Amino acid sequence: MHERIVITGAGVISCLGVGVEEFEGSLYSGASGVKPSELFGEHEITAEIRNFTPQQWLGNKGIRVLDRSARLLCVAVHQALCGSDLRLDDSGQGDPGLGMICGTMFGSLHSITSFDWSGLVEGPNYVNPMEFPNTVINSPAGQAAIKYKLRGINSTVCAGLASGLYALHCGAEFLRFGRARILLAGGMEELCEESVLGFGKSGLISPSGSLRPFGKNRDGTILGEGSALLVLEGEESAAARHAKPWMEISGFGCAHDAQSVSAFRVRAEGATASIQEALASAGIGPEQIGCIVSGASGSRTGDEMEVRALQNVFQDRLGKIVICAPKAAVGETMGASGAICALVAGIALRRQATPPTAGLMDGDTSLLLSKDPQPFDGEYALVTAFGCDGNNTSMVLRRWMQ
Amino acid sequence: MRRVVITGLGVVTPIGSGWRNFWEALLAGKSGIGPVTSFDTSSFPVHIGAEVRDFVPEQYIHRQTPENLGRASQLAVAAALLALQDSEANLARYDRHRVGVSMGTTSGEPLFVERYNNIRKADGLKAIPGEMLPKYPCNVIPSNIAIEFELRGPNLMIPTACAAGNYAIGYGFDLIRAGRADLMLAGGADAFSRIPYMGFARLGAIARERCQPFDKNRQGMVPGEGAAVLVLESLEAAVRREAQVYAEVLGYGLSCDSHHMTAAHPQGDGAVRAMAMAIDESKVGIEDIDYISAHGTGTPTNDRAESIAVRALFGNRAGKVPMSSIKSMLGHTMGAASAIEAVACALALRTGMIPPTINYEEPDPECDLDYVPNQARETHPRVVLNNAYAFGGNNASLCLARYAV
Amino acid sequence: MTNQQVTAEEIRNAVRQLVAEITEREPQEVSEKADFIEELGIDSLMAIEILVAVDKKYKIEIPEEEFGKIRNVYDAVEVVQRHLGGAAKAQ
User: Fold this and answer.
1) Are residues B147 and B56 both part of a single domain?
2) Confidence of residue C91 (pLDDT cuts 50, 70, 90)
3) Cα(A62)–Cα(A65) distance, rounded to whole angstroms?
4) Residues B273, B188 share a domain
5) A61, A115, A147, B223: which has the fewest Cβ within 10 Å?
6) CB-nearest partner of B133 from A159, A166, A201
7) What's the Cα-to-Cα distance from A251 to each of A281, A311, A379, rounded to whole Å?
8) Which residues sit opposite B68 in a β-bridge?
9) Domains, chain A, ranges and CATH?
10) Over 60: is that where the pLDDT of A158 sits?
11) What is the ipTM metric for this complex?
12) Do C49 and A122 make contact, defined as CB atoms within 8 angstroms?
């Protein structure tokens, strides 16, 4: 139960590029994927994946039945396997010890809505049976398992914006309980007309079209999309296959505010408790945190809640800890965001520098934010993922040391 | 690691709500299947379903406005209330940060998608109201339970389709076992929706008249709805507060066929591995299993593959272990199914009775096990296995045992 | 296009195109007698997809039981023709 859970690889696709190298390069250059939309018309501002041509990684065969969510997840799986020497040839029987845990907020919302729409408009006899499997929320994970012969545990988890961190936590627990040898864990979310419309109507999107985490004049978020998966395994498994760990999952904390499914709890009890629990389960104090990778997304109340939670935990030291908010560059990727932030934390720990918070202009001066990379000297990174549905999660990652 | 026990049961099902009504109906072989009333089925080739009728959300939901919740959340909150009342756990005595919720579902709150499309068709996209989206993501189900009872601990939805209930109970079990939570409400919920109904109807998977799992002439499954919540806590805590213990959770197993999105692996590859993992983790042997709650949907392929899988794992013992499908009575309640079946397993362990597979008339040479045809049976099982399989090739088996002081 | 004007050749081309799309092949790779299951790898889900598409295109309703007996493009053309009222002329 006490085995150290290490991360030996990652796969990522986002508006900042495909694969860790490209993602890291764009992120540290201060680039942002927040732009007028090509998918939904220029009046919408999104952080979408442009000219998405998954065929270059997935091939042409079998791609027809994969919807956008499944394609995003499959590209992340492909990248993760390639980058970890786990690539299986197509003739292989698959590995019953290799599994996946995918965090998502909506699943394939577009497939679900389109399937229902076709039945409503054309009649139930004319729905396409091939599209029916895509209406279950675990469909992307199931499709990826078929394509890459992942025969071990296969799970999908949903905790709103906290889905990605929950998936990593569940993965670590499964490994500790001996239920799998290697797990691809993280998150995935697609952009679709339904989420763009729904978020727009709900008043959560920035009317000024800018995503300014912790900004004084922030006015909402910008939706993004993508998928990030981390390769999780026990220390022994990594050693046995000579895989070089990159970081380890040291601690996790979660708390629900139990107040509302649509409003942040500005008093931040849950968010504070989740950070405290993450630190406690890592066995460290707040003074040992070298950097913070925040899930702040430009929400007026959400970012306010996050600042309060960080102040509650770090108190006077908060202004001395470097902090970054990657959503400024990748947008609000919902179910994928926690995993993307965890990946950023891993990169930051390795480089000993946080990436820029893209386009930072009017950031909260009580926080050590910057539009440039910020060096730090530390072993531990804190990742936060808080949602307006009351779910709050925090994770402590540690730079790998024997 | 701590031993984990079930100390409260709550169900809202097509054959009755509250475990006493439910259990009485199950042992009597009562069917909850009838003509669909939620929507017009005149353009469908089939017309039956297993709906929860006469459900009055106001009876169960007090801290929130019932009409603000989707139907799956309403069913889930009701099941959670029944389970908490049944457990007699006094929440005031708990650290709320250590009381959590873990739920499973297939479709989450699909009625919001239906409403979205209805509005779009009638009045166009401009008419979509702003408050709809936040109520839709499937994790609102456990969130609404947390809000209703002020539970601040871990809160997760595991939407692994028709195996989701077992996954969610497994996660709750893990949290209690590892000492990360003191009390977990775990289960599953799904609302009756035209979306899966259209899909299963188009696949020709829905039976026209009744659900006959494992029968030679079985025609298919019957979509249903419902919710179940189980209260999980450590044995130590249960003993300390002198709680009634229905059963002990011994372990579970998960696997993936990675074979086909909708069809089971023909040799039951993943199903065998999930059962074997559950038995192994539970530190019991195949010879100890004395009842199997089958996934048993009533489709020709599922029931054949499940029978093959059980035979492959149990060998000569296969035909001697009774295995029934309560979906013959409840229909397929989707993400709630395996949670409802786990409740039935706990009650079988507690009462000594096992529920039947009803509508069983003609044996199928390809399904040659003991399906407990038509009559409940008194067998006093000690260790039982609860099987669940899902789209995406997700398999989950849960192992429960009688708890004797 | 009315039903009367649909020729067997048109149906054959349409079905081939459909089968090609669903099995991710070029239409010329789908021969008229190639077995749906054995040679083209069409599973039950794909078969229903073909059925729905054909029903939709020709505004007919082929019962599943009948469609289940179809083994290849040749059979499919015949069944579609029959449901169009036998009006289409055989080649």
Assistant:
1) yes
2) very low
3) 6
4) no
5) A61
6) A201
7) 5, 20, 13
8) none
9) 5-240 (3.40.47.10), 250-399 (3.40.47.10)
10) yes
11) 0.97
12) no
Cβ pairs bridging B and C (under 8 Å): 14
Residue A93, pLDDT score: 75
Q: Where are the alpha helices (DSSP H) in A83-240?
A: 109-122, 139-148, 163-176, 193-202, 235-240
Quick check: is B71 in a domain?
yes
Go through the domains of chain C in sequence order and give each one's CATH number: 3-90 (1.10.1200.10)
Residue B245 lies in a domain: no
- Alpha-carbon distance of A187 to B352, in angstroms, equals 43
Chain A residues in contact with chain C using a Cβ-Cβ cutoff of 8 Å: 60-62, 64, 122, 125-130, 133
Provide the CATH number for the domain around residue B148: 3.40.47.10
Cβ atoms of A393 and A252 within 8 Å: the answer is: yes
Q: Which of B13, B349, B390 is nearest to B189 (CA)?
A: B13
Q: Which two tokens stand for residue B330?
A: 């409840």
- Structural domain harbouring B300: 250-401
Q: Which amino acid type is present at position A10?
A: A
**Do the domain assignments include residue B219?**
yes
Neighbours of chain C (3+ CB pairs under 8 A): A, B
Check: CB of residue A111 under 8 Å from CB of residue A139.
yes
In tens, the pLDDT along A25-77 reads: 999 999 999 999 999 999 999 999 999 999 999 998 889 999 999 999 999 99
Same domain, B90 and B217: yes
Question: Cα–Cα distance between A292 and A341 in angstroms, integer?
Answer: 10
Identify which of B370, B321, B379 has the alpha carbon closest to the alpha carbon of residue B352: B379
Contact A154 B262 (CB under 8 A): no
- pLDDT tens per residue across span B64-114: 999 999 999 999 999 999 999 999 999 999 999 999 999 999 999 999 999
Instruction: Compare all CA atoms of chain C with the CA of A123 and give the residue at the minimum distance.
Output: C56
Domain boundary among B240, B258, B276: B240
Select from B240, B263, B290 the last residue of a domain: B240
